[in-house]
């Protein structure tokens, strides 16, 4: 954490004079948590990202007069958000709901506002660190309405803004004044670093969703009804994105050359075909499979034995029902993106399909518990987006069937000399039972 109020604890250089800026104040007009600073030489005034959230990695400086940004760390998207929001700044009241759970004595602010759902959720996961380790501080969460249900027990105050994701980057001077008014009476106020990807040791997902993740230790016992959930999204569907690759037919390549890339609707149709093929292939291997599709989309069109949990409008109840479904799933499958954060946090394993432009963002959308690294490696798979349903089914089936064996090979107590010494026959017995549950033995 750093000091926010009265004067933020941050250092900047004037990009023109290379002298330290005099930090005078702070300003929070929405998702940006900014210092207000001036150059003693050229007298220019700046707003500058405080080291919190993505400001930890690439803080941007904005000239107050011209709105020009300086981005010495080269994150153009982050600089652009600031530049554009400042150029279009507004001053309009929005619903700002305050819930106090105890009086604030030494407040620390965790700003979870953002334009991306995943960013907001990941910032919120920082809350547990302060609740568990900093009882001397009173945690104040600044949160968009759609994530309010995830705020854990133990916070001092929740400030909920009715700010849709589509307006997540908004610079609103009214919001800045509201926040200023609530904090300026305090002698001191602190700011959470809002680490963009908090370490798994610092949070437990059930503190946020109130849903316990899949018990990996019971994987084999639960194989009597293997459960798979496909995390559906339509803005980034599962389709064959490999343009002109050798594994495409000449006709298909020619068609794409003439007609151009397929429409989103066509990609979503292809996704549906692929998901059905995936479910049917696994079902041929194991007829007891419990297959579901969850996510935002128009329900309908799947075989009757597939649970279609898709909806067009998400609310808290739907999110909870989905989390409970993930927590009953051996494996969740889905295309890379923040919509995999909660599925991966609750399911026993994840199989992610990665679009060509997302390999650099790998793991950013996966939440894992702080467990044995080999077990996690086994239970986390990444395949290219264009991987056909048959191959995904092959990988999935092997995960379903052999994860219990991997657990016996890699994790305690089965790798503990002291436990195995007195009863070395237990792993073999367990293995036999898992195989029987899958249907291969007995
Ligand atoms: Zn200067």
Distance between the termini: 58 Å
User: What string, H for helix and E for strand, traces the elements in order?
Assistant: EEEEEEHEEHHEEHEHEHHEEHEHEHEHHH
* Helix/strand class: alpha/beta
Largest beta sheet: strand ordering: 1-11-8-9-10-7
Stretches where pLDDT is under 50 for at least 5 consecutive residues are: none
Account of the 3D structure:
There is one protein chain. The protein has 442 residues and is α/β, with parallel strands linked by helices. It has two domains: 1-203, no CATH class; 216-402, Rossmann fold (3-Layer(aba) Sandwich). The protein has 13 helices and 17 strands. The strands form three sheets. A six-stranded mixed beta sheet has the order 1-11-8-9-10-7, with helices on one face. Strand 5 (61-63) and strand 6 (69-70) form a beta hairpin. The longest helix is centred in the middle third of the chain and has 22 residues, at 264-285. It is globular, with a radius of gyration of 25 Å. The relative contact order is 0.10. The model has no long low-confidence stretch (mean pLDDT 94). The structure holds zinc ion. Zinc ion (ZN) binds at residues 14, 16-17, 39, 41-42, 44.
Output the keywords:
Rossmann fold; six-stranded parallel beta sheet; six-stranded mixed beta sheet; 31% helix; globular; 13 helices; alpha/beta; binds zinc ion; 442 residues
Secondary structure blueprint with pairings:
Elements: E1 2-5, E2 22-27, E3 34-38, E4 45-49, E5 61-63, E6 69-70, H1 76-87, E7 96-100, E8 107-111, H2 117-124, H3 127-133, E9 138-144, E10 157-161, H4 173-183, E11 189-191, H5 205-209, E12 227-232, H6 250-259, H7 264-285, E13 290-296, E14 307-311, H8 316-327, E15 331-335, H9 341-346, E16 349-354, H10 373-378, E17 380-384, H11 389-410, H12 417-420, H13 426-438
Parallel strand pairs: 8-9, 8-11, 9-10, 12-13, 12-15, 13-14, 15-16, 16-17
Antiparallel strand pairs: 1-11, 2-3, 3-4, 4-5, 5-6, 7-10
Helix pairs in contact: 7-11, 11-13
Zinc ion binds next to loops.
């Amino acid at each position: 954490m750093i000091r926010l109020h009265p004067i933020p604890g941050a250092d900047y250089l004037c990009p023109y004079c290379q002298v330290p800026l005099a930090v005078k104040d702070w300003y929070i007009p929405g998702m940006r948590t900014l210092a207000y600073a001036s150059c003693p030489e050229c007298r220019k005034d700046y707003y500058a990202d405080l080291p919190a959230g993505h400001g930890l990695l690439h803080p941007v400086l904005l000239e107050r007069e011209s709105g020009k940004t300086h981005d010495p760390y080269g994150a153009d998207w982050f600089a652009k958000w600031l530049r554009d929001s400042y150029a279009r700044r507004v001053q309009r009241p929005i619903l700002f709901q305050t819930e106090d759970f105890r009086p604030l004595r030494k407040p620390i602010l965790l700003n979870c506002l953002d334009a991306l759902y995943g960013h907001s959720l990941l910032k919120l996961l920082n809350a547990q660190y302060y609740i568990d380790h900093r009882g001397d501080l009173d945690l104040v969460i600044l949160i968009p309405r759609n994530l309010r249900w995830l705020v854990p027990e133990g916070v001092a105050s929740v400030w909920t803004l009715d700010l849709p994701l589509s307006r997540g980057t908004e610079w609103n001077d009214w919001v800045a004044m509201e926040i200023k008014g609530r904090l300026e009476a305090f002698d001191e106020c602190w700011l959470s670093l809002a680490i963009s990807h908090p370490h798994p040791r610092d949070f437990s997902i059930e503190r946020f969703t109130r849903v316990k993740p899949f018990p990996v230790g019971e994987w084999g016992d639960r194989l009597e009804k293997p459960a798979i959930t496909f995390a559906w999204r339509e803005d980034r569907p599962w389709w064959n994105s490999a343009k002109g690759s050798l594994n495409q037919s000449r006709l298909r390549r020619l068609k794409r050359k003439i007609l151009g890339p397929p429409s989103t609707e066509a990609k979503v149709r292809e996704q549906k075909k692929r998901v059905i093929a995936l479910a049917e292939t696994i079902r041929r291997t194991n007829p007891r499979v419990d297959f579901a599709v969850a996510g935002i989309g128009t329900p309908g069109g799947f075989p009757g034995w597939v649970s279609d949990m898709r909806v067009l409008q998400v609310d808290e109840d739907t999110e909870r029902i989905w989390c409970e479904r993930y927590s009953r799933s051996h494996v969740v499958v889905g295309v890379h993106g923040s919509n995999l954060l909660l599925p991966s946090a609750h399911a026993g394993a994840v199989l992610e399909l990665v679009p060509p432009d997302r390999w650099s963002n790998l793991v950013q959308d996966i939440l894992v518990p702080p467990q044995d690294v080999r077990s996690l490696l086994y239970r986390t798979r990444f395949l290219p987006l264009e991987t056909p349903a048959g191959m995904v089914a092959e990988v999935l089936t092997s995960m379903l069937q052999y994860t219990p064996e991997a657990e016996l090979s890699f994790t305690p107590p089965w790798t503990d000399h002291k436990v195995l010494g007195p009863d070395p026959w237990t792993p073999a017995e367990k293995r036999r039972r898992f195989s029987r549950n899958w249907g291969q033995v007995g």
